[in-house]
Amino acid sequence: MDTRRDIFQAIADPTRRAILLLLAAQAMTPNALAEEFNTSRQAVSKHIQILTECELVKQEPKGREIYYHVNTDQMKEIDKWIAQFRKIWETRFNQLDQVLSTIKKQKK
Asked: Could you give the number of structural domains in the chain?
């Protein structure tokens, strides 16, 4: 059964966000990931399964081990969504800079 989950559901969990941060630095096995958390390998495997279903991580078999790494192409969907807020924040910060600059000039 291949359940396609929303990537925002996947990143809503702090453990899965932490897994993504670890995998962004280097590919890791489920055992190596489990060592980074105070939880069982089975719990980490469930998180990896969800991240895999969302295509945020990819599997890469090497010998008898399976390594997981971040799928940067799928991360672009998150960045695209955040970008719209970035534009709003930049506009507001620019407006604030203008107000502060005006106040500073008036005090002189």
From this structure: 1
**Under 8 Å between Cβ of 60 and 69:** yes
Q: Is residue 2 assigned to a domain? A: no
Residue 72: domain span: 7-107
Model confidence pLDDT, tens digit, residues 76-87: 888 888 998 988
Query: For the domain that residue 58 is a member of, what is the CATH number?
Result: 1.10.10.10
Are the C-beta atoms of residues 71 and 87 closer than 8 Å to each other? no
Confidence of residue 10 (pLDDT cuts 50, 70, 90): very high
Structure tokens at 96: 């604030």
Prediction pTM value? 0.76
**8 A C-beta contact, residue 48 and residue 23:** no
